[in-house]
Design goal:
153 residues, 61% helix
Amino acid sequence: MFENYSYKQKFHALIVIFFMLSITAYKRSFHTLFEVVSEYHMLSKKADDINKKAKNTGTLKNDVEYLDRIIGKEGVTKEMVQQGIIGFATTNSGASINDLKPIHDYPEADYHIITNQLDVTGNANQLLDLAYNFEKNFNYSRMVSQNFYTTKK
């Protein structure tokens, strides 16, 4: 069958057949293998990113807890804070509430400030004890300033 062809023609035909088989093998086997390997690398990077983000959530939780301790609890309404202040002021010292100003709300682009003003009467020890207890034990918000004054009867 191949007696009429020279060795050179037979070799060229063999090379053509080899390339045809190589291309077919690449398309059927190796092409999908390379796709799977590249997808594996991509998914491994995504898994690493997810693991890094999962580690950061613990840090974020700690940061939120720290900020809650510094500036007060998150997710509490301003009315709940005011009621908490009233309840705390009346039960934690011998001082009594003389005047309660309305809630002052000051929204800005980057932050939101809500203030409550309270006028409390009592002796010096009662007022200092109340201020100390607000700083140490009241969790909804923080005291920003306090003024002491005396009135003559």
